[in-house]
Design goal:
Arc Repressor Mutant, subunit A; three-stranded antiparallel beta sheet; alpha+beta; 106 residues; elongated; 5 helices
Amino acid sequence: MTEVERNPALDLDDTVHQKTRLALLTVLDEAGRADFPYLKRTLGLTDGNLGRHLDVLAAQGLVEITKGYEGRRPRTWASITAKGEQALGDEMTLLAGILENFRRKR
């Protein structure tokens, strides 16, 4: 009896793979650092939705949240951490393998 190959989709990280969090990580990977209004506008999210997803990513150490001021206005910035870059890279590698398997069978 031959052993069945494990489907690589089962190895996707649920924290990273959720579409909004994946989008957040890719935007932060490109930008390095972004403020809350930029992320909200770019991804079309509400304040609460964006805040919740950033909290999940921050709790896992994938992003760092910094609060401060720009002039007199309070600002919140998010930046991807080294752990976040690694998690995003791992996710992209898995997705590339899944896509390659899909195309090979066409």
